[in-house]
Design a protein that fits this description.
This protein is mostly helical. It is built from nine helices and four strands; from the N terminus they run H-H-H-E-E-H-H-H-H-H-E-E-H. Strand 1 and strand 2 form a beta hairpin.
Protein backbone atom coordinates (compact mmCIF):
# COMPACT_ATOMS: atom_id res chain seq x y z
CA UNK A 1 0.00 0.00 0.00
CA UNK A 2 1.00 3.62 -0.30
CA UNK A 3 1.43 4.04 3.46
CA UNK A 4 3.75 1.02 3.61
CA UNK A 5 5.77 2.30 0.68
CA UNK A 6 6.13 5.72 2.28
CA UNK A 7 7.25 4.22 5.59
CA UNK A 8 9.72 1.76 4.03
CA UNK A 9 11.24 3.86 1.26
CA UNK A 10 12.69 7.32 1.17
CA UNK A 11 11.12 8.94 -1.86
CA UNK A 12 12.38 12.28 -3.12
CA UNK A 13 9.92 15.13 -3.40
CA UNK A 14 9.86 14.87 -7.21
CA UNK A 15 8.90 11.20 -6.97
CA UNK A 16 6.12 11.92 -4.49
CA UNK A 17 4.82 14.75 -6.67
CA UNK A 18 4.83 12.40 -9.64
CA UNK A 19 2.89 9.84 -7.56
CA UNK A 20 0.32 12.45 -6.54
CA UNK A 21 -0.07 13.68 -10.10
CA UNK A 22 -0.36 10.12 -11.43
CA UNK A 23 -2.98 9.27 -8.80
CA UNK A 24 -5.05 12.34 -9.70
CA UNK A 25 -4.65 11.52 -13.39
CA UNK A 26 -5.83 7.96 -12.71
CA UNK A 27 -8.93 9.26 -10.91
CA UNK A 28 -9.68 11.70 -13.77
CA UNK A 29 -9.17 9.28 -16.63
CA UNK A 30 -11.17 6.48 -15.05
CA UNK A 31 -13.90 8.97 -14.05
CA UNK A 32 -14.37 7.62 -10.54
CA UNK A 33 -17.55 8.78 -8.84
CA UNK A 34 -17.27 10.64 -5.50
CA UNK A 35 -18.51 7.68 -3.44
CA UNK A 36 -15.71 5.50 -4.87
CA UNK A 37 -13.10 8.16 -4.11
CA UNK A 38 -14.56 8.44 -0.59
CA UNK A 39 -14.28 4.66 -0.10
CA UNK A 40 -10.79 4.30 -1.57
CA UNK A 41 -8.90 7.37 -0.37
CA UNK A 42 -7.06 6.13 2.67
CA UNK A 43 -3.26 5.84 2.51
CA UNK A 44 -3.53 2.18 3.55
CA UNK A 45 -6.04 1.41 0.79
CA UNK A 46 -4.19 2.98 -2.12
CA UNK A 47 -1.91 0.41 -3.76
CA UNK A 48 0.91 1.58 -6.00
CA UNK A 49 3.36 -0.47 -8.05
CA UNK A 50 6.92 0.47 -8.99
CA UNK A 51 5.58 1.44 -12.42
CA UNK A 52 3.23 3.95 -10.69
CA UNK A 53 0.10 1.98 -11.46
CA UNK A 54 -2.64 2.38 -8.89
CA UNK A 55 -5.26 0.07 -7.51
CA UNK A 56 -7.50 0.41 -4.50
CA UNK A 57 -8.31 -1.93 -1.67
CA UNK A 58 -11.79 -1.43 -0.27
CA UNK A 59 -14.70 -3.40 1.07
CA UNK A 60 -18.20 -3.36 -0.31
CA UNK A 61 -19.50 -2.17 3.06
CA UNK A 62 -17.64 1.07 2.36
CA UNK A 63 -20.17 1.82 -0.36
CA UNK A 64 -23.17 1.75 1.99
CA UNK A 65 -22.83 5.48 2.49
CA UNK A 66 -22.64 6.25 -1.23
CA UNK A 67 -25.56 8.69 -1.07
CA UNK A 68 -23.78 10.82 1.53
CA UNK A 69 -20.54 11.04 -0.42
CA UNK A 70 -20.51 14.13 -2.59
CA UNK A 71 -17.42 15.59 -4.22
CA UNK A 72 -16.51 17.78 -1.22
CA UNK A 73 -16.38 14.65 0.99
CA UNK A 74 -14.24 12.93 -1.65
CA UNK A 75 -11.89 15.94 -1.69
CA UNK A 76 -11.45 15.79 2.09
CA UNK A 77 -10.60 12.10 1.72
CA UNK A 78 -8.10 12.86 -1.05
CA UNK A 79 -6.51 15.35 1.31
CA UNK A 80 -5.63 12.44 3.64
CA UNK A 81 -3.66 10.70 0.88
CA UNK A 82 -1.91 13.85 -0.33
CA UNK A 83 -1.10 14.85 3.26
CA UNK A 84 0.48 11.45 3.84
CA UNK A 85 2.54 11.84 0.64
CA UNK A 86 3.93 15.23 1.65
CA UNK A 87 4.05 14.79 5.41
CA UNK A 88 7.76 15.69 5.83
CA UNK A 89 7.40 18.99 3.96
CA UNK A 90 4.09 19.84 5.60
CA UNK A 91 5.52 19.19 9.08
CA UNK A 92 8.35 21.66 8.36
CA UNK A 93 5.97 24.03 6.55
CA UNK A 94 8.41 23.89 3.62
CA UNK A 95 5.85 23.56 0.81
CA UNK A 96 3.33 26.44 1.02
CA UNK A 97 1.88 25.72 -2.45
CA UNK A 98 0.91 22.23 -1.31
CA UNK A 99 -0.55 23.64 1.91
CA UNK A 100 -2.80 25.94 -0.15
CA UNK A 101 -3.78 23.01 -2.39
CA UNK A 102 -4.71 20.87 0.63
CA UNK A 103 -6.63 23.79 2.14
CA UNK A 104 -8.58 23.99 -1.11
CA UNK A 105 -9.36 20.27 -0.93
CA UNK A 106 -10.49 20.58 2.66
CA UNK A 107 -12.72 23.60 2.03
CA UNK A 108 -14.41 22.50 -1.21
CA UNK A 109 -12.70 24.89 -3.62
CA UNK A 110 -12.76 22.34 -6.47
CA UNK A 111 -15.88 21.48 -8.44
CA UNK A 112 -14.59 18.30 -10.09
CA UNK A 113 -11.66 15.92 -10.29
CA UNK A 114 -10.27 17.56 -13.42
CA UNK A 115 -9.82 20.84 -11.51
CA UNK A 116 -8.02 18.96 -8.73
CA UNK A 117 -5.68 17.38 -11.26
CA UNK A 118 -5.02 20.70 -13.03
CA UNK A 119 -4.24 22.48 -9.76
CA UNK A 120 -1.96 19.67 -8.61
CA UNK A 121 -0.12 19.76 -11.93
CA UNK A 122 0.30 23.54 -11.55
CA UNK A 123 1.63 23.17 -8.01
CA UNK A 124 4.30 20.73 -9.14
CA UNK A 125 5.43 23.13 -11.84
CA UNK A 126 5.13 26.42 -9.94
CA UNK A 127 7.99 28.89 -9.95
CA UNK A 128 8.47 28.61 -6.20
CA UNK A 129 8.74 24.82 -6.41
CA UNK A 130 11.18 24.90 -9.32
CA UNK A 131 13.23 27.59 -7.57
CA UNK A 132 13.35 25.55 -4.36
CA UNK A 133 14.45 22.45 -6.27
CA UNK A 134 17.21 24.42 -8.01
CA UNK A 135 18.38 25.77 -4.65
CA UNK A 136 18.50 22.26 -3.23
CA UNK A 137 20.47 20.96 -6.20
CA UNK A 138 22.85 23.92 -5.88
CA UNK A 139 23.27 23.10 -2.18
CA UNK A 140 24.10 19.49 -3.03
CA UNK A 141 26.65 20.70 -5.58
CA UNK A 142 28.24 23.06 -3.03
CA UNK A 143 28.47 20.27 -0.45
CA UNK A 144 30.12 17.95 -2.97
CA UNK A 145 32.53 20.74 -3.97
CA UNK A 146 33.40 21.43 -0.33
CA UNK A 147 34.08 17.74 0.27
CA UNK A 148 36.31 17.61 -2.80
CA UNK A 149 38.18 20.75 -1.67
CA UNK A 150 38.81 19.26 1.80
CA UNK A 151 40.13 16.04 0.24
CA UNK A 152 42.39 17.98 -2.15
CA UNK A 153 43.71 20.17 0.67
CA UNK A 154 44.42 17.10 2.81
CA UNK A 155 46.22 15.41 -0.09
CA UNK A 156 48.22 18.59 -0.75
CA UNK A 157 49.22 18.87 2.90
CA UNK A 158 50.25 15.22 2.93
CA UNK A 159 52.40 15.72 -0.19
CA UNK A 160 54.00 18.84 1.33
CA UNK A 161 54.75 16.96 4.57
CA UNK A 162 56.39 14.09 2.69
CA UNK A 163 58.39 16.58 0.59
CA UNK A 164 59.67 18.30 3.73
CA UNK A 165 60.71 14.94 5.21
CA UNK A 166 62.87 13.96 2.25
CA UNK A 167 64.66 17.33 2.05
CA UNK A 168 68.21 17.34 3.49
CA UNK A 169 68.67 19.22 6.72
CA UNK A 170 69.91 22.72 6.10
CA UNK A 171 73.31 23.49 7.54
CA UNK A 172 73.07 24.89 10.98
CA UNK A 173 74.03 28.50 11.32
CA UNK A 174 77.17 29.08 13.24
CA UNK A 175 77.20 32.15 15.37
CA UNK A 176 80.56 33.66 16.13
CA UNK A 177 79.34 36.55 18.19
CA UNK A 178 76.42 37.34 20.38
CA UNK A 179 76.49 41.00 21.05
CA UNK A 180 79.98 41.88 22.43
CA UNK A 181 80.70 38.30 23.43
CA UNK A 182 82.93 36.32 21.13
CA UNK A 183 82.12 32.64 20.76
CA UNK A 184 85.12 30.37 20.22
CA UNK A 185 85.21 26.74 19.37
CA UNK A 186 86.36 24.32 22.08
CA UNK A 187 89.80 23.91 20.45
CA UNK A 188 90.37 27.61 20.35
CA UNK A 189 89.33 28.12 23.94
CA UNK A 190 91.94 25.72 25.15
CA UNK A 191 89.62 23.32 26.78
CA UNK A 192 91.03 19.79 26.68
Amino acid sequence: SLSQRLSQETLRLEERLALAEKLAQHLVLDDFPPYFIHAAMEPGRVKVTDAMEFSFDFELSDFLTWQEADFSVACRDMKKVFSALFEPELARRAFPDMERFLYGLDHGEFENMLRVYEQLALESRSFAFRFWEKLKSLGRLLIKSAKLAVILLAAGYLAYSVYELVQPDPEAQVYERIGDLEIRKDAEAGIP
